[in-house]
Every structure is written in C-alpha cells, then in structure tokens.
# Entry
Amino acid sequence: MTQELLLGHSAHGPEFDEGPRQRPWKFENIGRSHFPITTSVPEVQEWFDQGNTLLHSFWYFEAERSFRWCLKLDPECAMAWWGLARSTRGDRSKQFLTEAVRRKGEASERERMYIEAWEEAFVPELSGAVEVLDEQERKSDDLIAEKLALIAMAYPDDIEAQALLGRYTLRNSSHFGNELIYRSVLAEEELHPGAHHYRIHNWDGPEGHYALDSCEIYGRLASYSGHANHMPGHIYSGIGMWQDGAYWMDRATRVEKHYMRERMIFPFNNWNYAHNRNYLSYIQEQLGMAGRALDGARQLLGAPLDPKYNRKEEDSSVFMQGLFALSRGLVKFERWDLVLDGETIPWRDELSDEMWRAYSEGLAHLGQSNLEAAIERLIELKGLESRIEGERLRSRYKLVLGELRGLVAIESGEALKGLALLEEAAEEQLEGWHQANDPPRHPRIVSNVLGEAHLAQRSYVLAAESFERTLLTVKNDGFALSGLARARFALGDDEAASRAFGRLRFVWSDADPRLRWLEDTYELGLEADPIDDSPRTQRRYAYENLASFGPGVWEPYPAPKLDALDPDGSRVTLEDYAGWNIVLVFFLGEQCAHCVEQLVALEDRIAEFDERDVQVIAISGDTPEMNRQSLKMGGLGMVLLSDSDFANAKRFRSYDDFEEMELHSTIFIDRLGRVSWARSGGDPFMDLDFLFAQIDRANGEGPTVSAGEGSIKEEESGL
# Structure
C-alpha cells in the first residue's frame, strides 16, 4: 500500500484505527481506585487511575480512551500499554501487550509482575511459556489468578492485586473463597468499585441475596456506568425480586442512552446497551408489562445498524437482541395474530431464524386451534435437524423441538406421549436455567407449559408440582403463580391457592389489563392481599421516576454546528438545508486516492440520493480556492466545503485527538437535523446500498414509542 492510501489511518498501526479517537474527559460517578504506576508525566497517573476504574466496571471502550491519552502524554509508559491490552481483545490486545513487554524493563518490579502475568497467559512466545496455553493444562484466567496471588503476597498493601484476583477467580473458584477476597478488599476500601462489582458477579444466581448490599452500593457508587446499574438488575431478577430488577435495569438503559446522546455514540458502538434493553424487556415480561416489554423490543429493532457491528452470527448485536425480545414477548403473551402475520417479526433468511419461526408459528397455530398447520411447522422444524451446528444452537433446537412436539402430540390425542416429551424438555431447561438466563432466549418456561397441560387434563396434583418446580428455579414467576393458584384451588386447598394469588398480585401489581393468566386467577374468587415473597422489601417500579437518569427511548442526537465555506468563499450552515436529508462526507482532500474513489461512487448514484431528498455534502481541509480549481473534483455535482482549521471535523468527531489528524467520516443527518447514522475512521465507507437502507428506514419510520419521561405509571401502557 502506498503512503497515499494510508491517509486517515493511524501512523502506529491498524490496531489504532479502531476504538475511540477523541480525547477522554474526567468522569464523575464511576467510583474510585488507585493503581500506582511508573511514568515520567505526573498527569498520566490520573488518567491511568480513571482507565483502571472503568475496567472495574467492564467499560472497555472508555477505559481504552483513557489509556490512549496516557500514551499521548507518555508514549513509553509500559503500564499504559498494559492497560490498553486489558481494554481490548484479539489481535489488538496481543499487539498492545507486546508493546508493554518491550518496555517492562523501565517499570518497577511490581509492575513487571503484572505485565508478565498477562505475557505468559496471552503472548507465550515472548516468555517461552508455550505450554500454558494448552487447553488440557489450564486456562488463561487460572494462570493470571496464580500470578495475581503472588503479587498480593509480595505486596500486601496492593489492593488492586487483591481486587483483580477476585476478578480472575470468578469462573473457577469457590463462591465462598471469592467472598473472602472481596471482604479483604472492602475492609481496606469499603467503596472499592471492583470488589463490589465482582462480588455481585460471584453471587449472580440462586444465592444472589448474599450480594444485595453490594448491589445498592455499587449501583450508586458508579451510577454513571450502565453496567453498574445493570448488574444489580441481574441479581434481583435472579432471586425473583422483579420490581427492583426492573428499576435497576431501566436505570441502566437510561444511563446508557444519556451517555450515547452526550458523547454522540450509537447503540451499535455501545456493547452493553442492547443487552440492557433486552434484559429489561424480559423483566417487564415477568412483571406482566407486555406492552412495555414489546415497546422495548421495537426500540432495538428501530435503532440504526452498521454492517461492521451487526454481523448475522452475533447474538449481542442490537438487531439480534431486539429480535430475541420481540419474538420472546409475542410468544410468551400469546399474541398469535402478530406471530403469524409475516410482518411484525422481521425474520431473516438464516438457519436460527428458520428454527425460531417454525417453533413460534407452530405454537401460534396450536393457539388458534389449527392443528394441521401446526403439524406442518413441526415437520419443517424437524427437517432442520441435519443443519443444526454448534452447542448453543443444538441446545436451543432440542428445547424448541421438544416443546412443540409435546404440544402437537397432546392436541393429536396422544396425551401421555406429549406430557412425557414436555417433562423431558422441562427438566433439561431448568437444569441449565442459570447458565441460559442472560436473559433466556426461550420464550416460555416449559414446566409452566407442562403445568397448563396437566390442568387441561384435570391432573391437578401433577399441575401443582410442575408450577412449584418452576418457582424453585425462577422465583416469583407470575405465570407459575397463576397456574399454582388454579391448581391448588382445584384441589380444594384454598389457603395455598390464596397465598399463590397474593404473591401474583404483588408481582403483577402493575401488569397490563386483560392478561388471561391474571383474569383466570381472579375468577377463582380468592381473597388475598399482595404478598412480597422476597428477602427484603422492594421498590414499586411503576411509581419510580427515572427520568433523571436519562431518556426512556434512544433517539438520534442533534447534529453539531456546521460552519464552513463553499468554493466561492460563502458561509454554509446546516440551516441552509433545513428540511433536507444530508449525507455529510469528511474526506482528506484531493491527494487522498481512496477519498476520491468514495466521492466518485457517491456521484455515480447521485440520482438515488435525489430521489430521497438527500443533499450530499463533501467537506475537507482544502481551501475554497483548492476546491474551486481542483481538476479531480471538478466533475462532481455535490457541494464541496472547506474546513481548513478542522473545527467542523472536531465537532463531528471526525478528528483523531491522539494523533492530531482528520479522519474519514460518512454521516447521515435526517430532515430534523439529527445524526441518524455515522461511520468514522479507517477507510472511507463504500457500502452505499447499506447507506440507502438506513436513509429509507429514517424516512419511513418515526419514533417507535413515546419518549418515556417520568414514572412508568404516568406513561401509556399496552400495545
């Protein structure tokens, strides 16, 4: 590649072309930690501490930004390179770690121990310890934990070594052994964000009540971190405290949306947002808030996409999390017409979607008493078996097939066979529940499906046992409580039925109206006050005002000010194009060959932009005179603007503060003056078909739901 083609790329290598490109700022409300390092620039210590603190909350993107600034100030700081290695993954992480290893001779003995721990785990060819990466021997986490233990022993005052030890023993050590590590750290620093965070992860599951105090402390201590709000929601939902779970998970989504709007970041760049919103939908489902849950799913599906961050195979992509949430909610609440209309769920031509669609539509046909169509979907589902690959997909396939086969068998008059199939599926699902609950992809708890089938067969004892089995694993599940109340009532046990009804009344105290499970239970005529069967008193989610944490819905952010000169030297602003869609392209001048290639490609399809009322504007550091006289640009019909001091590039995040250079950017600004999509850095964006699709989505759809301000109770509910 010639030097000309390297314009817009980092001079330090491709690993710097990704990640944040603008300088960091001082964060508030993320907690505090201090990790002393060797540096020739005192200011570096402050930024290193911030990056380290952000890592304690798994905020890798922003931690990388802080460590990059450390290197801007002190390029030879070995620990800043080590911090970058911890903030990234794959080849980028390995390259950053290699740079740390090269500089470890200038670090202290304690710092060298940290670098060498990661060196042996991830770059064994540098240390000669090739055998440690043998999967039959040990995992990298185990090795790092061993090395951190040695550091903690050698430097007993190093709280960070102890905290990180608690991080790297999470997967492979005793919960109670880990607890002792966290207690040791918190005895020295009672507000250490990492110790509280890792303690929450340690007890994430059926024993989550052990971490309730850390949930409240960590969530408030690091309130600006989406993940710090997310993890308490994890714990609370894991022990059936759905009201508190929704409160914290809703906070998490709002904090993330506030951060994205404030820092001009998109959902596809923010790893935790889609997961937060999907998880919130799941918790809202558990509260009977079907409308809220489905609105949240539609928010994800309506968010802008990016071909780089929306790969089909990635469950974590914004689109996939939205698809999971929407299909799960529609099946769970039996919205069969929407499942079958062929439009509501945006299924793709992918194997996993074929599986979920056959399953969902099979259930929908059964729900509409169309056994023949359900059998057709079951045959279609069975036909996919030979194509199913990968442990995760095979596990999901086995579960959806087992549930649908069981229900079809029952409806076909083979009740014993169908009940046996449901029993097998229910047992397998609950055995792996805590591994799959992030949140669960499968829409229904099959033991509840089995319980309803037993109720239909008038097998009330077996029905009660099925619902109770659900409640042992999924605490305070509203669907199970409804079924248990009905089963116990049919058995003449009014006391047990009333208690189940009271628990249901609390969990579904703000549920959507006309849910059949709630109506069927009310029809029993039982009397019971709401009962909160939780380790401690909960909030009432529906009455919590969460607007101060951020907006309820992600929306495109307002475009920064555009103030540039056209080839005649006249001033041009965005106001000159009010009511137009705009594609704003930051390019690096006529000397940049691949920039010219992009502009020519845009010009070739200018008629398609015109059809969409899109004005294409190209802006660079070239002077108005250069733009006017440029022969290469002379044949272009788009607007050419001059940004000679890069003020516009900086406002639109098309400037690298670390290397002080302009970047390639392609930015779509909608008719309302909002940035609806953008790609900055690396090569110029050339996937114009994708860009047109994003423009069409923006033109054809308004906001998916209301702005979500104020308390949930004040907002419109339902579909």
Remarks:
- The beta strands are 557-558, 563-565, 571-573, 581-586, 614-620, 639-642, 655-656, 661-662, 665-669, 674-680.
- The chain has a mean pLDDT of 91.
- The first strand starts at residue 557 and ends at 558.
- Residues 176 and 202 are 9 Å apart (CA to CA).
